[in-house]
Amino acid sequence: MTATTGHDIPARAAGTEPIIEIAHLTRRFTSRRSETVALDDVSLSVRPGEFVTIAGPSGCGKSTLLKVVAGLTRATEGDVRLYGKPVTGPQREIGFAFQRSALLEWRGVRKNILLQAEMRGMDRRRAEERADHLIALTGLTGFERALPHELSGGMQQRVALCRALLHEPRVLLMDEPFGALDALTREQMNIEMNRIWRETGTTVVLVTHSVPEAVYLGSRIVVMSPRPGRIVETLEPGLPDRREYGPTLADPRFTAAAERLRDLLGASHAPE
Amino acid sequence: MVTTQEARPTPPSARGPRPRTTRAAGTPGSRALTLLAESWRPVAVLLALFALWWFVAWRELVPAYLVPSPGAVAETMAADWAMLLEHTWVTTLETIVGFVLAAVIGVAAAVLLVYSRTAEKSLYPLILFAQVIPKIAIAPILVVWFGFGMTPKIVLAVLIAFFPVVVSAVAGLRSVDPELLEMSATMGASRWKTFRKIRFPGALPQLMSGLKVAVTLAVVGAVVGEFVGADRGLGYVLLLASGNLDAPLLFADLILMSLIGVVLFVLVEVLERLLIPWHASRRGNLALATV
């Protein structure tokens, strides 16, 4: 069942072909001694322009789900499609932001972002212009030459975000990108993430185990249970795309969804 | 489309000017001072040892044919400098060629071992086993095979210096963060690009440690090669001097050998500084130096 059904779902998300389609996905990890079911019969489709957050306790296979979509790990059973085509190997038509920022420690900020262009063989001048635009967009101006170890955790994640957005991917997959940040920086990153999403129109799937993050960012919140990972419920609080942080947190639609999400996650944590 | 009037907070860390880092070295004067502050201790120990040597020789606590006085050694060096220089050059050349070959072959072998499971399974145990064979014992065979020229010395230098290069390069190439490889895959990067831009630079810190060990071993290889059969080089001169009980020449020769090792080691250090200024080990050094 759905807790709340939104009335003002963004227009761009309505009535279009799904950009990601996951049908009956199961992922098992087998070792000599045991078999772990990471994902069990997960079905989910994401429409263009949506911001889907996947919330669940640690070890519920939500990162695996993201990696299956990116083609970094295979599905054991089921069908995964990206842009209508079945995912068989690593996908390059996406942007991927990792849990740890995965920056090259010998490259400065700008060069780390431009790695994306070098690997893809993009036009250098266009890529540089785009990189400078993203650097400005994420407030990294003045740090272009700084090495990763000279940056704070939040800034490192901004660099990773710029890198993931450099080639203007239609889909951005984010694996707990703000998990390692302190609460305050995380809030700021959430606000910026919402703005970047609106300004770029990118479809985003973000994995998180933070309740406020999931509800504040998601136009749709997919709640998962721990092992085996299943989708328990999908929440659509129907908040407007543009969200001021403070007012949104006080919005009854937000609080209702957050409470429901907390209940669901709490229930799945309960001892058996 | 979107009129942005909302507050856009920037984190406090982003507001200030670019942080000053330890990478920014001080003025030349202060740099010389820190160099002095760092190096006075080993220099002091060296001077003490030298003083002890001088004292022993001066008081003739040990016969002069066993331990010559520093003065006698210096005289020999001054008198025979042309001869010594020529032989030093020969040994240096053998060492450098041997070291460079060992580095190239070692890195190539490491790449093969890391990228091919078959090669790893069939070759790596053999390389480890081959390391157990005393290389010095191979020297006579090399003379039989390659004659008295530079070749057997270079081959021996390669054989001795190869192992630390392979081991460190394999360790370095393997230590790449798997997440970086996944990231590279989502960028659609080719294997070669992934190697060139991610794997190899990431392996450099460990590789450089291996190269530093290798360069000192290459000197040993060259000298031992000269012991076994040569008509040139510092190893050959050492044998001659030993046969003639020419202690000053022995000591002069030994000093020159050590000098080759030290100079080449410093050169590799400089190379390291140029290649991986970003690495934590380098940062640590400089941070301490600026204290």
UniProtKB/TrEMBL annotation, chain A:
<dbReference type="InterPro" id="IPR050166">
    <property type="entry name" value="ABC_transporter_ATP-bind"/>
</dbReference>
<dbReference type="InterPro" id="IPR017871">
    <property type="entry name" value="ABC_transporter-like_CS"/>
</dbReference>
<dbReference type="GO" id="GO:0005524">
    <property type="term" value="F:ATP binding"/>
</dbReference>
<dbReference type="InterPro" id="IPR027417">
    <property type="entry name" value="P-loop_NTPase"/>
</dbReference>
<keyword id="KW-0813">Transport</keyword>
<keyword id="KW-0547">Nucleotide-binding</keyword>
<keyword id="KW-0067">ATP-binding</keyword>
<protein>
    <submittedName>
        <fullName>NitT/TauT family transport system ATP-binding protein</fullName>
    </submittedName>
</protein>
<dbReference type="Pfam" id="PF00005">
    <property type="entry name" value="ABC_tran"/>
</dbReference>
<feature type="domain" description="ABC transporter">
    <location>
        <begin position="20"/>
        <end position="251"/>
    </location>
</feature>
<dbReference type="GO" id="GO:0016887">
    <property type="term" value="F:ATP hydrolysis activity"/>
</dbReference>
<dbReference type="InterPro" id="IPR003593">
    <property type="entry name" value="AAA+_ATPase"/>
</dbReference>
<dbReference type="InterPro" id="IPR003439">
    <property type="entry name" value="ABC_transporter-like_ATP-bd"/>
</dbReference>
TrEMBL record, chain B:
<feature type="transmembrane region" description="Helical">
    <location>
        <begin position="40"/>
        <end position="58"/>
    </location>
</feature>
<keyword id="KW-1003">Cell membrane</keyword>
<dbReference type="GO" id="GO:0055085">
    <property type="term" value="P:transmembrane transport"/>
</dbReference>
<keyword id="KW-1133">Transmembrane helix</keyword>
<dbReference type="Pfam" id="PF00528">
    <property type="entry name" value="BPD_transp_1"/>
</dbReference>
<keyword id="KW-0812">Transmembrane</keyword>
<feature type="transmembrane region" description="Helical">
    <location>
        <begin position="127"/>
        <end position="148"/>
    </location>
</feature>
<feature type="transmembrane region" description="Helical">
    <location>
        <begin position="207"/>
        <end position="229"/>
    </location>
</feature>
<feature type="transmembrane region" description="Helical">
    <location>
        <begin position="154"/>
        <end position="173"/>
    </location>
</feature>
<keyword id="KW-0472">Membrane</keyword>
<dbReference type="GO" id="GO:0005886">
    <property type="term" value="C:plasma membrane"/>
</dbReference>
<comment type="similarity">
    <text>Belongs to the binding-protein-dependent transport system permease family.</text>
</comment>
<feature type="domain" description="ABC transmembrane type-1">
    <location>
        <begin position="88"/>
        <end position="268"/>
    </location>
</feature>
<dbReference type="InterPro" id="IPR000515">
    <property type="entry name" value="MetI-like"/>
</dbReference>
<keyword id="KW-0813">Transport</keyword>
<feature type="region of interest" description="Disordered">
    <location>
        <begin position="1"/>
        <end position="27"/>
    </location>
</feature>
<feature type="transmembrane region" description="Helical">
    <location>
        <begin position="96"/>
        <end position="115"/>
    </location>
</feature>
<protein>
    <submittedName>
        <fullName>NitT/TauT family transport system permease protein</fullName>
    </submittedName>
</protein>
<feature type="transmembrane region" description="Helical">
    <location>
        <begin position="249"/>
        <end position="271"/>
    </location>
</feature>
<dbReference type="InterPro" id="IPR035906">
    <property type="entry name" value="MetI-like_sf"/>
</dbReference>
